[in-house]
Amino acid sequence: MRNPVGGHVPVAGGLATTGLAYARELGAETVQVFVANPRGWATPKGNPAQDEKFRAQCAADGVSAWVHAPYLINFGSHTEATVEQSVLSLRHSLRRAREIGARGVVVHTGSATGGRAREVALAQVRERMLPLLDELTHDDDPFLLLESTAGQGSSLCSRTWDFGPYFEALDAHPKLGVCLDTCHIFAAGHDLAAPEGMARTLDLLVDTVGQGRLKLIHANDSKDIAGAHKDRHENIGSGHIGEEPFRALMSHPATEGVPLVIETPGGKEGHAADVARLKKLR
Ligand SMILES: [Zn+2]
To answer: Where in the sequence is the domain holding 113, given as residue range(s)?
Structure first.
């Protein structure tokens, strides 16, 4: 399938029991989950029976799975405790991803806090994140996918070209990839709704990171205008991006085979409608 479409699903009650049941109700062809509280540092063990069921069912249904790492992670932080927790948290997400058969772990690119220079923060990204990539030596280890931000504050990566220095800091490791969030990149200043806006933005991304690095797309419309630096997701076609750019997204060569995950409002009904809308546009 050119672009499997699915969503981020809740898993309280069990990865397979709750998560995959929800995914089925959405008609999801791909699925994203948290393996820890996204707003905490806990690193829970997981339930082997649920893991096995999740793995087996995803494989049987041909559904690819993805893990989103916790939001608190920031490898650019000037606070040592935050960086230490970030290492433990991301290592946990990567290990859990392998255990549940996920293909990639999405992590936010973070920001240079405390007024420090971007170069200092990126040097720290190299020092603390690169060893985690080097730990990915099993055949079934996930990719580590960098998700850029809407460009708030001292963000390390929000425009397409910001992936350049980030990839450089990580030696363009073979296990490194990109998760493109359409709301974030629009909010950061790439006007996807302009004529050819989506195609141009994808071209810029490929120019920066090379072919084959785009592994996942967070398909979200935006409640705010391009360049607003606000991270407020909207249902597909109901925001300032609109439907048409998503059609363009799914016909660009860079997105061949790349799954789309929605992270939109509206609960289960809203999610099902967005999945259906993207399938229609595909
Ligand atoms: Zn996202």
So the answer is: 5-281
Count of CB atoms situated within 10 Å of the CB of 70: 23
Give distance in angstroms: CA of 107 to centre of ligand 1: 9
Q: How far is the CA of 57 from the centre of ligand 1 (A)?
A: 25
User: Does residue 270 carry a pLDDT above 90?
Assistant: yes
Q: Helix, strand or coil for residue 61?
A: helix
Residue 70 DSSP class: P
CA of residue 203 to ligand 1 center, whole Å: 20
* Span from the CA of 102 to the centroid of ligand 1 (angstroms): 17
Helix (H) or strand (E) holding 143, with range, is strand 143-147
- Around ion ligand 1, residues with a beta carbon closer than 5 Å are 181, 218
What predicted TM-score, i.e. pTM, was given to this entire model?
A: 0.97
CATH number at residue 73: 3.20.20.150
Per the DSSP assignment, residues forming a β-bridge with 6 are: 261
Q: Which of 69, 13, 10 is nearest to 39 (CA)?
A: 69
pLDDT tens by residue, 31-42: 999 999 999 999
Rounded to the nearest whole angstrom, what is the distance from the C-alpha of residue 84 to the centroid of ligand 1?
A: 24
Total structural domains within the chain: 1
Distance 79 CA to ligand 1 centre (A): 25
